[in-house]
Amino acid sequence: IVFQTKLLSFNASVEAARSAGAPEMAAAELNAARSKLDRARALAAEGDERGAIRLAEEADVDAQLARARAGSERSRRAVTELEAGLQTLRDELNRAAAKQPVSAPATAPQ
Questions:
Q1: How far apart are CA 36 and CA 54, in angstroms?
Q2: H/E element holding 15?
Q3: Among 14, 46, 66, 67, which is least packed, fewest CB within 10 Å?
Q4: Lowest mean pLDDT among 1-15, 48-62, 71-85
Q5: Distance between CA atoms of 73 and 93, rounded to whole angstroms?
Q6: Which of 38, 30, 35, 19 is nearest to 65 (CA)?
Q7: pTM of the entire structure?
Q8: For the chain, what is the total number of helices (H) and then of strands (E)?
Q9: What is the dihedral of CA 12, 17, 20, 22, to 10 degrees?
Q10: From CA 53, how far away is CA 8, in angstroms rounded?
């Protein structure tokens, strides 16, 4: 029962990584987690609970890594998008400033 509970928890970890965008942004890590979880289930079916738990724990770590990498990639993409938006604003300001007529300096009355 303890193993089954742990397995459900580790499975939830893999699902959380999938939901966080890992299939697109951290596919290798997510695939490693899924593969290890599948092998853990196979070991459990063969009666090797210790080996199954070890692999399931590794799958959990891989899933956490996939989730973290996906979050990092989302953040990186958001920063890139924000920087592009800021550059567009700078360009617009520069164009607007270039269109302003340059006024001659005022001379003091004598």
A1: 9
A2: helix 2-19
A3: 46
A4: 1-15
A5: 30
A6: 30
A7: 0.74
A8: 4, 0
A9: -150
A10: 12
For residue 26, the surrounding DSSP H or E stretch is none
CB 25 within 8 A of CB 76: no
| Contact in structure between 33 and 66 (CB atoms under 8 Å) | yes
Instruction: Give residue for tokens 């299939």.
Output: 23
N residues, the chain: 110
Residue keyed to tokens 């997510």: 30
* 84's tokens: 């592009």
Contact 38, 62 (CB under 8 A): no
- Separation between Cα atoms, residue 97 and residue 85, nearest integer Å: 18
Q: Compute the distance between CA of residue 9 and CA of residue 12 in angstroms, rounded to an integer.
A: 5
Question: Please, which pLDDT band fits residue 1 given cuts at 50, 70 and 90?
Answer: low
Q: By CB neighbour count within 10 A (0-12 exposed, 13-18 middle, 19+ buried), where does 82 fall?
A: exposed
